[in-house]
Amino acid sequence: MLLGAVYIAEAVIAPVAFSLFLIAILWPLQSRLQAHIPRLVALAISIFLLVVTFSGFASLIVWAFSRVGRWILINLSRFQALYNQMILWLEEQGIAVAGLWAEHFNIGWIVSLMQKLTGQVNTTLSFWLVVLVYVIIGLLEVEGTSRKINMLPNHRIARVILGGSEETAVKIRRYMIVRTLMSVLTGILVWAFALLFGLPLAQEWGVIAFTLNYIPFIGPFIATLFPTLLAMVQFDTWQAVIVVFACLNLIQFVVGSYIEPRLSGTVLAMSPFVVLFAIFLWTFLWGLPGTFIGIPITIAVLSFCAQDPSTRWLAIQLGPPDETDPPIPEQTRPEA
Predict the structure, then answer these.
(1) Which pTM does this prediction carry?
(2) Cα 31 from Cα 161, distance rounded (Å)
(3) Which residues contact 202 (CB under 8 A, 6 or more apart)?
(4) In this structure, what is the dihedral angle of CA atoms 302, 306, 308, 312, given to the nearest 10 degrees?
């Protein structure tokens, strides 16, 4: 029932979730600034930095994908030739796809897709405007909300809320720092490989790998799929295409499965099964925004569960496979 309500009320709940995520990231800056300058001036600086960061990130995405799209249009004849070769080979194997393609991928389908993309852009702009308003109001109310929670008559609930909020914010900030460092490293490695291998649009592929790496699992897969499709028309041999695909996946695997876990430490103290499940669950519930926010939401849930002995078992069960710490007994956790 709860997940159904979250799914139905996406337009209301999703902006709140994203605003809490951004408040957790911005609050240390806001707190330090308002200790030396008026609170409203500090708020203006924090919001300005947030808008500049998001605008720069969006500009990178638009620049990279527009350059790739322009290259595809210029080399459309080469893609058409590759398509004809694939159709001919499939027909030789007794698989007829030309009729199916003509039935589903016609001009009406293209127009409908463009209308959906245009509507999605308008919806995204409205979404982030609502998130920005929530962030502005939320940053002004952080201290007051903390005082109200401390005044709750049930000290156990107050301790869980405050402790869970603080731990969630710390973990989310560290998660984003590690994710940003790994995205930069992935982008540099993809750019260097594309440049050395002679793949066109090397800078663009590096930027795309950098931006999509913020979306676990799905983003890196897309970042390797697009250059591979381009390599299919750029090189004459399938061996070169396989090398491109294998090397790009090797980069993603080394960074995502070897380097990042050693830097993140206990931030992502979750079973890989839980991580993957959270991504697909929140993608199903909220689409692309859910793909990005799924891991931070799961971090928050487990952080709150770990604050109380009655729910700490859940944090342990959903933690990493080698987690061996027993739940803290009730009597060892004094009331605050």
Answers:
(1) 0.79
(2) 20
(3) 191, 194, 195
(4) 90
